[in-house]
Amino acid sequence: MVIDINGVSWDRGDKTILREIDWEVQEGEHWCLLGLNGSGKTTLLNMINGYIWPTAGQMAVLGKKFGEFDLRELRKSIGWVSTSLQQKLHGSETAFKIVLSGKFATIGLYDHADEADSQKAEALMRSLGCAALMQRTYDTLSQGERQRVLIARALMASPKLLILDEPCTGLDVFAREQLLYMISSVAEQEQAPTIIYVTHHVEEILPCFSKTLLIKDGTVFAASSTNDVLKTDTMSAFFGVPVRMELHDGRNWLTVKESLWK
Ligand SMILES: Nc1ncnc2c1ncn2[C@@H]1O[C@H](COP(=O)(O)OP(=O)(O)OP(=O)(O)O)[C@@H](O)[C@H]1O
């Protein structure tokens, strides 16, 4: 099992931020994690990456039970693309070196890369449609280009689990669709890692994310197949407002019912 979370809670002072979370992710599945601001998504990801520990319950990631192994080793098997990673990168590095540094899962370390590493970095950049950006410095890239570079970087270490934390934030609709297309092509590769795609936006859930976890106020609201979860009734209850869900070309689109404004 890739992620096995059993009755996990996380308290901070007198506040319970995550409450009795159960979540199982099996090999070969790709999940979407959907929740509003402050619902507990980042806290859950911090836990999966071993940056915080459950206050109660048990969990194992990639078969490793917390408390019984070296977390730094586990993190090498997890690629995590997030806004906080973007802030840690050196903007004056070339996109190519940033991708290469992903092999070591460290920032700015690429001195020991060999020819095979360079070829892999180039191939990943090509498959993510950003080979033309290799010699550009990171701070000259657009947000959509940066996300592709960061996904290529995460794939350099051949992770077993790839977490994409709101990758479409700040993208216009065309850049978003291009990035989503790239992500679905990564998901369809033979040796693809298990992908966890985190978002606030239902329309970003691609058909390759066949499972969806809804998280609300620190608890699991639903965890099932995407098409079962993204139903009008479930989503209206989840958001606490009447919404309408419609399926077009394998993607689910949400509209807020007009009655809300009357
Ligand atoms: N270290 C902490 N101490 C106290 N409260 C915390 C801590 N970390 C998170 N929280 C609170 O826990 C709740 C969940 O936060 P979290 O960042 O996990 O939400 P999120 O779903 O990732 O939100 P967003 O979509 O806005 O990033 C929030 O109310 C937040 O203020």
Automatic annotation (TrEMBL):
Domain ABC transporter: 3-242
Signal peptide feature range: none
PROSITE patterns: ABC_TRANSPORTER_1, ABC_TRANSPORTER_2
Coiled-coil regions listed: none
Molecular functions (GO terms): ATP binding
SMART domains: AAA
Family matches, as InterPro entries: AAA+_ATPase, ABC_transporter-like_ATP-bd, ABC_transporter-like_CS, Metal_Ion_Import_ABC, P-loop_NTPase
Alphabetic keyword roster: ATP-binding, Nucleotide-binding, Transport
Name of this protein: Iron complex transport system ATP-binding protein
Highest classification ranks of the organism: Bacteria, Bacillati, Bacillota, Bacilli, Bacillales
